[in-house]
């Protein structure tokens, strides 16, 4: 495979990044594939396969490569291996958004017609979503990974300076007892708490608004300095990250149309308080 093959572009996947780094360090250190193979106690054909994205590396191989190339302190291959594992367990669109877009966004705009946005979910609320999936139930360990991953995303809100977050939430979300009344009340209280954060604007779109443009599903718009805008479109079948300027502009227009129906910020907070009072009576 040629060195300029798209499969060796480290931007395409973690496995491609592993292959590119292995080839790079081997050439920088002027060592052959046979020499690397001897250090890993394997055949030269395996090293060739790793460099050409034809084999997935194992953790012990990544560790021994860091040792062989004198990278045990800064570590190069082990972190990439861990990213390969993440990509294997999570949809590529999810990894792309969580690792490459959301952490660097200066502005995030979300429309949430069905559930509280993932960035604002409590652990109990998220747990109910993951455990009640109609798909084949994942192992308990996998559920915990999904929940932890969602909770870790909140770190973006603690950045200095933080991103400006504008969330539009359908009023029906406040009255959908995901996990029961107690879980919903906890979730709504957290939503009200973060709504007072000056970097966060939460607006409730009333149920009576109709708001046909919002019926297409959940989406999030992201602005990242020096890069094209991006939109994450989510549905029951998964998600899709798009950076095409026309698609992003269409969703920005749809977002603005939905926002025109929303309650102002202060009124939205009162609507959340009213929902908390209602559901608290059922605990």
TrEMBL record:
Pfam families in UniProt: DUF5753, HTH_31
Question: What InterPro entries does its record include?
Answer: Cro/C1-type_HTH, DUF5753, Lambda_DNA-bd_dom_sf
**Superkingdom per UniProt:** Bacteria
The Gene Ontology terms for molecular function here are: DNA binding
Domain named HTH cro/C1-type is located at 22-76
Write down what this protein is called. HTH cro/C1-type domain-containing protein
| Organism the protein comes from | Spongiactinospora rosea
Tell me the lineage of the source organism.
Bacteria, Bacillati, Actinomycetota, Actinomycetes, Streptosporangiales
């Amino acid at each position: 495979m040629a060195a300029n093959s798209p499969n060796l572009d480290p931007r395409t996947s973690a496995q491609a990044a592993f292959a590119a780094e292995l080839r790079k360090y081997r050439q920088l250190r002027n060592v052959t594939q046979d020499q690397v193979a001897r250090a890993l106690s394997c055949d030269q054909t395996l090293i060739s396969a790793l460099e050409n994205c034809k084999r997935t590396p194992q953790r012990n191989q990544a560790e021994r490569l860091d040792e062989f190339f004198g990278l045990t302190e800064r570590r190069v291959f082990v972190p990439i291996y861990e990213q390969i594992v993440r990509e294997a367990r999570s949809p590529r669109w999810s990894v792309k958004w969580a690792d490459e877009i959301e952490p660097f966004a200066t502005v995030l705009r979300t429309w949430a017609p069905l559930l509280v946005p993932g960035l604002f979910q409590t652990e109990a609320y998220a747990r109910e979503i993951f455990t009640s999936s109609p798909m084949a139930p994942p192992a308990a360990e996998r559920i915990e990974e999904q929940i932890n991953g969602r909770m870790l995303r909140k770190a973006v809100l603690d950045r200095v300076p933080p991103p400006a977050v504008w969330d539009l939430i359908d009023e029906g979300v406040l009255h959908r007892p995901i996990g029961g009344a107690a879980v919903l009340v906890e979730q709504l209280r957290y939503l009200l708490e973060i709504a007072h954060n000056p970097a966060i604007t939460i607006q409730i779109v009333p149920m009576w608004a109709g708001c046909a443009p919002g019926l297409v599903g959940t989406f999030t718009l992201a602005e990242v300095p020096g890069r094209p805008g991006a939109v994450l479109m989510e549905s029951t079948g998964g998600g899709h990250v798009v950076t095409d300027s026309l698609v992003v502009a269409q969703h920005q227009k749809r977002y603005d149309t939905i926002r025109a129906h929303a309650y102002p910020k202060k009124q939205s907070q009162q609507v959340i308080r009213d929902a908390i009072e209602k559901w608290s009576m059922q605990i």
